[in-house]
Amino acid sequence: MRHVRARSRRSASLYVRSALALGLVLGAGAAATDASWTDQELASGTFKTATFNTESSVDNGGSYTDHATTATAGTLAFTAVAPTPTSATPGQALYPGATMNTSFAIRAKAGSIAGIVTSITPSSIGSDAVLTSLQYRMYWDTAACNTAATTTSFAPSASGAWLQQTAAALSTAPTVPAAGIPLAVPTAGSAGTPVFFCVQLTVPTSANPPQNTAAGSTFTWTFATQNS
Amino acid sequence: MTVTDTAPEPTASAGRPSAGARASRIIRTVLLDVTAAAGAVCIVLVVLALVFHLSLIMFRTGSMSPTIPTGSLAMVHHIPAEQAHVGDVVTVERPGELPITHRLVSSKPDAAGGYDLVLKGDANAAADPVPYHVTTVGRVVWHAPGLARVIVWFSNPFVLGGLAMAVAALVAWVLWPRQDP
């Protein structure tokens, strides 16, 4: 009698514990199927920064490249207009009474947004005898510069404006309007309409620069641009 | 649950069980007790989860760091949206996407009878750009770092299947009819 009761109690206990043990599988399975990932990626759009980049031309709008650093600065080509160049007074040599024109064009590159030219800063000319004897005038225009302009015909069209109307020393910074000079936004796939900076250099007849400076003197205008 | 076996009284004719049989019975008993205890906890948790609408959330990204780092496991309590308080970390469902779990910045009822919730991750500089339109949210009531990996491991069919077979084998071993001495 005692034997039988002991056996059945033992079996019941085993069954209960066995059933509870199976709960482990239930729990693991429930946790595995119930748990879901949460994520923090945002539903907002992806923001891309716009590109603003300019390129410039030193051949009156013929070809454009990046002239972003002093090392890659564009070298201006001068056209002597007065007195009429001869073989004795060629190209880029200056002398009292000489007048030379040059142009510099800036445009927004393809894919860029619109921008403005905010300032034009002359490099220091120090006491360089050649540079201090030079004077310049400057205007901007959307039409290409007339590189053959004389001192009287050198003037902006209705779509441009003076930056330096009266002849001034190179150390005088051109007066850029506070609103900047607009660089048009390019249409898709092409560069923007360029802005031409027309420069006329003169050597006053009163100046007395040193003669025959074969090494030449270098002067740089830095055109600052920003997106608008 | 910890009822111990009432061993049959030894009789002169059968003699005492062998040392090997005794060791085997002790191992069986300990294994079964441990497994049964773990299983009982699991059953209780599953019942609690069903009764109190609890579920588990695993964190795949770290926008709630350092409170809840990537790889954390959290238990969320599903409640009506109006019971969520500003400052609670809540999980909101998104149609077609994984849910978002961020801290509640503001909540206001909308015309459709739900709530528009503005959420922000603790590690994010700004709130999420668009409010979430919800009627229920999961409020995080408990979280622990690193446990998502354990859940993922259990989700592996081989692991879960192996666990099931191991428990079945233990039960079979315990209940296998054997000749008591």
Plain-language structure description:
The complex is a heterodimer of chains A (228) and B (181). Chain A has 228 residues and is an alpha+beta fold. Chain A has one domain (54-227). In chain A, 14% of the residues lie in helices and 28% in strands. Chain B has 2 domains: 20-51 and 153-175, no CATH class; 54-149, Ribbon (Umud Fragment, subunit A), CATH 2.10.109. Chain B has helices at 19-52, 148-155, 157-175; strands at residues 54-59, 73-80, 89-94, 97-109, 115-120, 132-134, 136-144. Chain B has a 7-stranded antiparallel beta sheet with strand order 1-2-7-3-4-5-6. The two termini of chain B are 24 Å apart. Chains A and B meet through α1 and β1 of A and α1, β1, β4, α2 and α3 of B. β1 (36-38) of chain A pairs parallel with β1 (54-59) of chain B. Chain A: Keywords: Signal. Chain A: Residues 1-30 form the signal peptide.
The strand count of chain A comes to 10
Radius of gyration based on Cα positions of chain A: 38 Å
Strand order of the largest sheet of chain B: 1-2-7-3-4-5-6
Find the count of extended strands of chain B (DSSP E, 2+ residues).
Answer: 7
Overall CATH architecture of the largest domain in chain B: Ribbon
Number of domains of chain A: 1
Which percent bin holds the helix content of chain A? 10-25%
The interface involving the most residues is between: A-B, 36 and 58 residues
Could you tell me the strand content of chain A as a percent range? 25-35%
**Biggest sheet layout of chain A:** 6 strands, antiparallel
State the low-pLDDT regions of chain B, or none. Answer: none
Unreliable stretches of chain A (pLDDT < 50, length at least 5) are: 41-48
H/E order of the elements of chain B? HEEEEEEEHH
Shape of chain A: rod-shaped
Tally of individual helices of chain B: 3
Provide the β-strand percentage band of chain B.
25-35%
CATH class descriptor name of the largest domain in chain B: Mainly Beta
Shape of chain B: elongated
Given helix and strand content, the structural type of chain B is alpha+beta
- Name of the CATH superfamily of the largest domain in chain B: Umud Fragment, subunit A
EC number (chain B): 3.4.21.89
Organism (chain B): Gryllotalpicola daejeonensis
Keywords (chain B): Membrane, Transmembrane, Transmembrane helix
Protein name (chain B): Signal peptidase I
